[in-house]
Amino acid sequence: YQRRVHGSMYVRNDAKIFRFCSSKCTKLFKRKKNPLKTRWTKSYRRASGRELVYDKTLTFEKRRNIPVKYDRELVGKTIRAMKRVEEIKQRRMKSLYAKRMQVSVVVETQDDLRVLKNNLDWVPDAHRETVEQDVNTGLEKIKSGELKLRDYLMEAQNAAKS
């Protein structure tokens, strides 16, 4: 049977095969652009730690062209294993995403605290002293590394409740 293939393929003189998903990728390759410097490429995302690279679950996805005699029990085990591997992979991807976002939340909080510190005239007079103290302690905690994402969220929830 013939399977439908997307993209294009380039074979170099030394028989090295390059597969491209789109004409955009092909053109950049022919212009000798480095994919590690192009932000949307897979290689950039892997090199900068935005995707899983050295994970054991990725080795299960490799294609194996070894013929195996059909065995119903083996097929059942394989399908169950594939589902389990996918669950593990999804969980690890979520934890990687959460770890990456943790840094951005702390940075955003720091920026928010600085804006609030510079514009204390926005705060009503009755609450100005307490807000100023909270802002100063928050900035100190961030500088010292004490304030983590979980701590900040807990403090914000407690402040909202009271």
What labels describe this entry?
mainly alpha; 59% helix; elongated; 162 residues
Explain what this protein looks like in three dimensions.
With 162 residues, the chain is mostly helical. The protein has helices at 23-30, 42-47, 56-59, 72-118, 128-144, 149-161, and strands spanning 8-11, 17-20. Strands 1-2 form a two-stranded antiparallel ribbon. A hairpin with a 5-residue loop joins strand 1 (8-11) and strand 2. It starts with 7 loop residues before the first strand and ends with a helix. The mean pLDDT is 81.
Question: What secondary-structure arrangement, pairings included, does this model have?
Answer:
Layout: E1 8-11, E2 17-20, H1 23-30, H2 42-47, H3 56-59, H4 72-118, H5 128-144, H6 149-161
Antiparallel strand pairs: 1-2
Helix pairs in contact: 4-5
